[in-house]
Amino acid sequence: MKYTRLFNALAGTGSVTAMAAGIGVLPLVAYAGQGTIAHEDIEKITVTGSRIKRTDLESASPVAVISAEQISLSGISNVEDLLQEMSFSAGVAGNATNAYWTSGGYGTAQVNIRGLGIKRTLVLLNGRRVVAGGTGANSSVDLNMIPTGLIERIEVLKDGASAIYGADAVAGVVNIITKKSFEGAEFNVKAGISDEGDGENQELNLTLGGKFDRGHALLSLNYSNSEAVRQSDRIDCAKAGTPEGELECFGSGTTEGGRALLADGSQVQFNQHTDTQAYGDSYGAYNAQEHGFEWIPYLNAVNPMERFNLSSFVNYQLSDGIRLFTEAMYSKRKGEQIVTPRNGFGGIQVDADFAYNPTGQDLEFQRRRNTELGAPYFFQETDTVRVVLGLEGELTNGWEWQLAYNYGRNTGVDGWTFDIDSEKAAHTLDDSICTYDNSNGIPCGDWFGVNELTPEVIDYVKYRREGTGGNEMRSWSANLSGDLWELPAGTLAFALGAEHRNESGWRDPDSTVLANGGEEAIDGRFDVTEVFAELSVPLLADKPLVKALTAEVAARYSDYSNAGSETTYKLGLTWHLNDELMVRGVRSTAFRAPVITELFGGTNGENLRTIDPCENASGAIAENCLAAGIPADFVQDGTTVLTSVGGNPDLAAETADTTTLGLVWAPDFMPGFSATLDYFNIEIDDAITSVNGSDMLKLCYQDPEGNSQFCDTFTRHPVTKQINELSQRPVNAASEKVTGIDLNLVYQFELKGLTASTHLDVSRLLDHESTPFAGQPTIDKAGYITEDQGSYTKWRGNFSFRLMQDSWSAMYSMRYIGRADDVNVSDEDPLGKAVGSVIYSDIQAGYDVNDKLKVSIGIDNIFDKEAPYLTSWNEANTDVMTYDLLGRRGYMKLSYRF
């Protein structure tokens, strides 16, 4: 059986389906266990997780496959959404950049296996690394650069693989394998829209391929476009729960007209109150409920994005034993997200005798929502180029060799269509600098109320904010693999190789932001030299209770210029008791060197949602808050805190030990059925992590003495006690641990003359622990949902049922997200203490009109399941990293083959 026929067979068996998308996921070993395969008829192939080519698909490590057929049927246009629905993507599966714009996502699409973070999941394209993507000094691949129409399959290794692929492969590996042997021409067009009549999206894809005298060439062009959906089109306001079990709307403490702290200690709101008899019409006492600003209309539920991809793959036979191969890809992405009207006023001091100051007192501006300037847009535009050039061939003894050069470069620009220069804003409130007649070009500003600003003031403080940056990777690699000699139990096979890689990243902030200290430039680089060796050792064969017993051994030495040297290993075992049952296990070590942003990242301020434990506190936390001078009736104004993030040049590499144990069963008495059960354990030492603001505050006030290092990470205003700023930088923490179980069932059978298949994929998260520092309390996220790191629900599951005949197929798919407790559970908000289980259902169908034309339709979230409310929501009153904001939506796709 040839290589392409083999994976067509994989797709034809059906596969475990990601429910919301209807995506098929089939463990390679599950298929391999279905009866005896005539190995002599199968071409040797490489499976993700090993560099050794083999005639079977059995592997000690669990590998899942998403086939091109299932991708096409799902109607999904980007790789992020394909992977985000998988049950093994516990925790946040992406940066939710399709839902909101904050937290440094910058419009990139990312993947996260086991909820261990995007930096611990290695993304490969055709088995090779890909340059990081974004708008400068980024740490992960932008999956937007890979159109789904180009993909032949995606292999997901759910195991650490540093010994095989190097650093970053701590939680697992996503290997995206593209089409290369396509012949003919195919044009695909797809359009979709939500049930509300918004969220329109379109995709066009043209693939051309064919053979020539000594080789083969493929060309792919892809264009996709998605329209924005506002959060205000899905929810009416930002809400908070009450002790009575009700939801109340609330607004941001950054208000229209501005508010200030007076010299006498009172807080006032300018030109925005209702009791004019008591306060006049210029200012009055600040009231959060009355004056709060509704920001929901200024954020997106789905962000607009436009993307163009051009890809080319050429193979050319130079001689009988040498082949030239090339891979060339170019991707351009444009995106924008609406941003709330800017502030730029915190802490500005104004004298009592300033002409526009109506209070007669010295004051400090707290915040001001400058709606007079309108709402800016946060925009990104990136260009990514990837070129691979290589030679490969076969020696006279059958050993295969390969030399390859891999080059990738990403450049980008991002910014806001306009922002406010805080330094210039301060100038307009200081009449020793400004003039009331604008005679020196610096106008004095009346910022004390709504719509009081002159065009001259607006023009003076307003500027276009724009930063640039990029990433670059250069890599040389050499590999050799083959069979060494025959042992009594089979063939001893090997693979070895070497690689040298240079990576760099840079970020040049806007000059105004740089001058005002809001962001620092980044310029970092490192290089690494690695060598590895791998053996497949047959130990026993055709013995009682041992059909075959094979060991997989690998080791890699890595020498990093920024993190020293490290040796990692892998020891795996596959034990076929008979043709029906296989036991497998892997013990390996992994490590991750700190990336450029973690080492060299300059200070950058981000407004991150943070929960203050001194608000509605009880017990020891309440006592410690009182001891710190925070009143019992304290209310944290607003939900976001200016958080200083950046790099730490003192970081060291983190190390990990991973263990997987599993069973694969394909009984002869039940043809078409297979089951896999795998246990995984990942333990990370010296873990590189940033403790989020809410956790740092909670740890500080739980035990101010024992957790004193967290009490030094923030400051409070001396009068209002509001948190002014947090510092959140990466450190080498003590440890992290993740354990769980994956169950996969696949059954293909005949049903009333039709081919039917059912698929079940379930993950049970047992532990997801992190210990911030040695001696500190361990935080277990299993069973919890967080405000900024996604959901760590204990149970996730995917199920699908598919019917097929010669010219048509139909599928129902379902995704299950188990219940979870809120990480900031409180009796003050009983409605948000826990989130119940959520089920999303989809239907898809495809029909072959003739040999050339195929039509596909689908409806996602057919029951229009709404996203649940939780206390620690990050946007739109929910967790946008986990739940569906868009609602019911449909699509139609036409494929025409020339």
Give a description of the structure:
- The protein is mainly β.
- The protein is 10% helix and 47% strand.
- The strands form eight sheets. The chain has a 22-stranded antiparallel barrel.
- It is globular and about 95 Å long.
- Residues 1-24, 29-42, 90-105 and 273-279 have low confidence and may be disordered.
List the SSEs and their pairings.
Layout: H1 3-12, E1 16-18, E2 23-27, H2 28-32, E3 63-67, H3 68-74, H4 79-84, E4 121-125, E5 128-129, E6 151-157, H5 162-165, E7 172-178, E8 184-194, E9 201-212, E10 215-226, E11 229-230, E12 239-241, E13 247-249, E14 259-262, E15 267-270, H6 276-279, E16 283-285, H7 288-291, E17 300-302, E18 305-319, E19 322-338, E20 349-350, E21 363-367, E22 377-394, E23 400-420, H8 422-427, H9 455-461, E24 462-487, E25 490-508, H10 511-515, E26 522-543, E27 546-560, E28 564-576, E29 581-592, H11 596-600, E30 604-609, H12 619-627, E31 640-645, E32 654-665, E33 673-685, E34 688-689, H13 693-702, H14 708-711, E35 714-716, E36 723-728, E37 731-732, E38 735-751, E39 754-771, E40 779-780, E41 784-785, E42 791-792, E43 795-804, E44 808-817, E45 820-822, E46 834-835, E47 838-848, E48 853-860, E49 889-897
Indicate the mean pLDDT: 85
Radius of gyration: 29 Å
Query: Which regions are unreliable across 5 or more consecutive residues at pLDDT < 50?
Result: 1-24, 29-42, 90-105, 273-279
What distance lies between the first and last C-alpha atoms, to the nearest angstrom?
Answer: 27 Å
Taken as a percent bin, the fraction of beta residues is over 45%
Which structural category do the helix and sheet elements fall into? mainly beta
Helix percent band: under 10%
Number of H/I helices: 14
